[in-house]
């Protein structure tokens, strides 16, 4: 019912055919919470606006429910949208803001009243129905904007960075509230953000975009642990993934080693096999490893004797539960280690970092493609 | 308990007192502004007093500013001038009021409807349209008097209210002001309304216009003052005496006088009648300008 299908959707601007969105294919299931994430200018907002009907489609097809909506105006698409700057009508009070969409649809007065009150109760904004938007705080305004969306009972919610204007604490609070709201209403939601934390925490599935091209569509877990390319790996996750350039050397039959001038790291057999199958033995690659798979613990050294790098503890960031330690492992090459806060070393002391090579990722230097990505589960 | 509240009170007092303390520069500029406003107010005071002065007081020497024995004699005289003519003064006043109000409504409406698409619907050539509207600002009114006459005459609207209204409707300053204001509206606001199901005209009427009230108020003031004091349309396009406006009537009244002592009182009364609506309109819309400016916080 509330599914959305995008079929080869493209958006080009101007005569020089500059593509803002290229060949976008996606099926969003009914009731799904889909997050589109990417750096600014990657085309995620444009895609959302095309679904909303605020932007024309250069080519391709968009279906909402069972209807082709390419030429349907926004108001007939049965969607509701929440904007980054709330876009509340400043001349109307909260009640009128929420009721506006229903009034435009010429619903009888008592129905409008009931619907507005119900939406206000859901979002706990009953107490300021009489106020004007300027008398509300950012969080309250965003609630009103959400109220304006849910009151119409649409098939699809579209949210364009709705939390970006809120302060950090409120953002986290509203995030959980939007998740709750989605669970409660079960309405298909497309959510655009540039914040990878929001993407990871909120989405059933995530679409990572860059320069108008979809990089990967998958669950948050798989996006994080098995990114399709170097961009996805680097964009998702905080602190960012560690990337080291080196060469793959075949030390014996079927066994590879990741080799730089300073150190060599043994690669487990299963990974070696895949890399050899891809004819990468002897080639330069980029090794990617997340900070939680890099250890300072001496116990790890015994179990992984062939994946150690000597380094110097350069600086550390105290994060509360964790400590991010930056170890210099080569000329101006820092490796981030997520460690316990009570780890022993001090700044400028020597440390030995141990890499959990089973979790290591290898990327092609030219294409950025993840060489270990299993292609059988590409797009959903 | 008492002492703490006293301390709190004194602290409060000190905090409150701070903004009212003026720096020397502020004091000087305050004095200057007060003097300037007195200077600017003088003509208004003079108009009010003159209108109420009986004849003998009007010609007192040395002249006085304040009226000693206020009377309505001048107004009665003004009324009496038209007593024996075919057209009573009320007709002129009616014409003026009707034309001024209609002009205000038309000018604000047309300016807004012109500015909205230029600002928010970037149709091909919108820059050229806006540019050509601005270019018309360069022409002095005198240069367009003859073409304007030809247009009005060929349209066949001489001696009708359209003859008064049509030449006044296009106000480039109004379009400019309105466009600048609408430019500030975030596009998301209009997008939100579109998704809510509002038609283009509903968006314009229910969202754009209410938010742009400061601009509407400013344009209303400009349009009213232009229309109320305008004698040009009466002189050029109206041959029928019943279609002429009050300022035209007054100009005939005073221009025939030269240095004549007669009717000076009536002229003073007429000046007050001419001036009062301007003041009232300004006071009404000015407060509107300030209140709407205060909550222009759209975000």
From TrEMBL, chain A:
Organism of this sequence? Paenibacillus arenilitoris
Q: Which UniProt keywords apply?
A: ATP-binding, Nucleotide-binding, Transport
InterPro entries reported in the protein's UniProt record: AAA+_ATPase, ABC_transporter-like_ATP-bd, ABC_transporter-like_CS, ABC_transpr_MalK-like, ABC_transpr_MalK/UgpC-like, Mo/tungstate-bd_C_term_dom, NA-bd_OB-fold, OB_MalK-like
The protein's name is Sn-glycerol-3-phosphate ABC transporter ATP-binding protein UgpC
- Domain (ABC transporter): give its ranges: 4-236
* GO CC, any one term: ATP-binding cassette (ABC) transporter complex, substrate-binding subunit-containing
Mind giving the lineage of the organism this protein is from? Answer: Bacteria, Bacillati, Bacillota, Bacilli, Bacillales
Q: Which gene encodes it?
A: ugpC
UniProt xrefs under Pfam families: ABC_tran (PF00005), OB_MalK (PF17912)
What CDD domains does the record tag this protein with? ABC_MalK_N
One GO BP: carbohydrate transport
Alphabetically, the GO molecular function entries are: ABC-type transporter activity; ATP binding; ATP hydrolysis activity
From TrEMBL, chain B:
Q: How does it sit in the membrane?
A: Multi-pass membrane protein
Write out the entry's keywords from A to Z: Cell membrane, Membrane, Transmembrane, Transmembrane helix, Transport
Chain segments annotated as transmembrane: 28-48, 92-116, 128-149, 161-182, 203-224, 265-285
Places the protein is found: Cell membrane
Against InterPro entries, the record matches this protein to: MetI-like (IPR000515), MetI-like_sf (IPR035906)
Gene Ontology BP annotations? transmembrane transport
Q: Which GO terms describe its cellular component?
A: plasma membrane
Q: Which residues form the ABC transmembrane type-1 domain?
A: 93-285
Which family is it part of? Belongs to the binding-protein-dependent transport system permease family.
UniProt-listed PANTHER family: ABC TRANSPORTER PERMEASE PROTEIN MG189-RELATED-RELATED, BINDING-PROTEIN-DEPENDENT TRANSPORT SYSTEMS INNER MEMBRANE COMPONENT
Name of the featured protein: Carbohydrate ABC transporter permease
Q: Which organism is it from?
A: Paenibacillus arenilitoris
